[in-house]
Amino acid sequence: MSDPVYRGRFAPSPTGLLHAGSLSTAVGSYLEARARGGQWLLRVEDLDPPREVPGAADAILRTLDAFGFEWDGAVEYQSRRHALYRDALQQLIASGAAYACACTRKEIAAAARRGLDGYVYPGTCRNGCPAGREGKAWRLRVNDEAIVAADRLQGDYRQNLAEDIGDFVLLRADGFWAYQLAVVVDDAEQGITDIVRGADLLVSTPRQIQVQRSLGVGTPSYCHLPVLVNAAGEKLSKQTLAPAIEAGDAVVQLRQALARLGHPPPADCLSLADIWSWARANWSLARVPRGPVS
Ligand code: GLU
Fold it and tell me: Where does 216-285 show beta strands of DSSP type E?
């Protein structure tokens, strides 16, 4: 049965090539979209040029294509969507939800305690920057209340943003847009109904729900897939030196990605086409493990 509307997406950052962890995320988000009769969009999250690896965006798209992923519509690039982020920030400034912040990292580290994702901003500039200081970053005001993200795989995930995170950055002092703003603006503008991504982003979800509420846009459905960890229990990432996947190895890699998601393909599925057709016919979120997988 098809959902009336399902629009999912995969949103890689070109800060490195695809590795086994990001491949699993792509596979899960793709199969969930197709199993629900939905669309699957690709968005390159190239928001942070200093951290980008030249050529990585093209290489990721080529690898996805070689693996047999079929995406709907044109690939979007966040680097071409700055006007949308600026409009959203203007709206948040006009409503009083966003304020300018002059604090340096050092000042915050000296005054703040640690929360769930770095320092909890102590609110220094909440009622205006200190005299003689100009705010270059913009932060979103958060409330002292629970925000619950209902996750289809992980269950209810709860944070109190005032205690756990603090007012967070929308536009960085160096002029780059923050992921938390851009992702919400794009998901809303692209009509994304279902976000299926890695569980490392669960910690960001209440912030994104806060941005949605402050902008007056809807909250999509969330599903956070298990992260892939190495033998030391660390999440696979560029920082932990996860090897890039090779398209020449696609059959083996795809079989492994599906197995990690609780869907080991039968031994006689030996081509990409066979594996995909088996996976599309057999995909069920109920079989996907919740916790980290290796
Ligand atoms: N660009 C993010 C990443 O590669 C994913 C963002 C998302 O799926 O919301 O980690």
Answer: 221-225
For ligand 1, mutation pick of 43, 53, 183 (most atoms within 8 Å of CB):
183
Torsion of Cα atoms, 189 then 191 then 195 then 200, to 10°: 0
For residue 11, list its beta bridge partners. Answer: none
Residues tagged active-site: 238
**pTM for the structure as a whole:** 0.96
Query: In 3-state terms, what secondary structure has residue 243?
Result: coil
Joined tokens for residue 51: 């951290």
Among 76, 179, 180, 202, say which to mutate for ligand 1: greatest number of ligand atoms within 8 Å of CB: 179
Q: Which atom of ligand 1 is nearest to 9's Cα?
A: 8
Which atom of ligand 1 is least distant from the CA of 45? 1
- Condensed to tens digits (0 to 9), the pLDDT of residues 24-73 reads 999 999 999 999 999 999 999 999 999 999 999 999 999 999 999 999 99
Give the count of beta carbons closer than 10 Å to the beta carbon of residue 174: 9
Whole-number Å distance, alpha carbon 25 to ligand 1 midpoint, is 10
Ligand 1: centre distance to CA 194 (Å): 14
Q: How far apart are CA 259 and CA 58, in angstroms?
A: 27
Q: Residues enclosing ligand 1, CB less than 6 A? A: 11-13, 45, 183, 197, 201
Whether the CB-CB separation of 68 and 272 falls below 8 Å is answered with yes
- Convert the pLDDT of each residue in 107-144 to its tens digit: 999 999 999 999 999 999 999 999 999 999 999 999 99
SS3 223: strand
End-to-end CA, the chain = 33
